[in-house]
Amino acid sequence: MSKENITPAQQLIINQTATTLDRLSHIQNLAGESALHFPAVKTFSTSRRFSFLNAPEYKILRKGTTVIGGEASSGKTTLALQLAIDMMLQSPDLSLLFYTLDESIERAKRKILSLLLANQDLLPKDKHGKRYNIAFDPLTQELQDILKEPSQQAILKRIHLSNDAYFLDPTHNGFHQAIAHVGAYRTIIIVDYLQLLPKANHIHNLRENFNASLAYLKDQINKLNANPQNEMLLLLLSQVTRGASQSTFNFRETSEIENIADSAIVLEYDSQPKSQPTGRGKEKVIALSRTLRLIKNKDGAKATFQAIMASDIPFFSHIDIANQRYTDSSSTFKVTSR
């Protein structure tokens, strides 16, 4: 049969047959050495403050999708940005793309600059040891001069901000273009926060809309990471609500948040802040405690940690103080020292 005599229906069958034969090559057996080769899970470098997250039994900070959930003002944004800045300080080829859908660009800038300087212990302190809080106070000339130094400018050039959800909307399919604009093979993308993702016009059900956006973002990250050169870490921030027992948490709008993630972390308020005596019969709050629950981890163990936030600025000063790991025999926790 000549090509001129092929009907559209016949051409469709030919095309489908070619596609089927091509996809059959993706079905493999386990014979041979290549099938027994498993590449090591590569993690992003961190300082000692976050090194426990990349311990062999956890390997959380790796390319893929991680969800950080928490109640309002629990420290989700601070944790995500501090993690990103910490990793950037260790790796000069790592960039950050921060979608701040909850706060203004101005507030996001202040938060990032504060964390950048605090991570390097460059924030000035008063006579009581309290650090200067950029979130509320004007940027002094001293701090401006520090940030103008070449070493700081080199870091700031790798930090990108946007409050435009256009590139997160499956309708526009512009996620790859935004990553290409950043121009880095190794990038951390933070979305703050998921419940503010754009609503698609063709989906009227909120839950279905939300799930479609989540599936789109996960698919985009997987496609980017399919290139061996790329290392993309997507940090999705999400609000959570307490369950009826007050000891369990649910991601708002949908359970798909946890399902699509490679790992999921929930920040929980602790009942008592850490304090010390002042010598006058009173106590001064020196730190605010959070429980950090690793509730999902595809490449490692689940765990619960204690995280300590500083009392003077939004900053996680200690995170590897305590570690509780699930026992093999039950869902209870077994306390182990680090």
TrEMBL record:
Domain (SF4 helicase): residue spans on this chain: 66-308
InterPro entries, sorted: DNA_helicase_DnaB-like_C (IPR007694), P-loop_NTPase (IPR027417)
Molecular function via GO: ATP binding; DNA helicase activity
Native source organism of the sequence: Entomospira culicis
Pfam family, one: DnaB_C
Protein name per UniProt: SF4 helicase domain-containing protein
GO BP, sorted A to Z: DNA replication
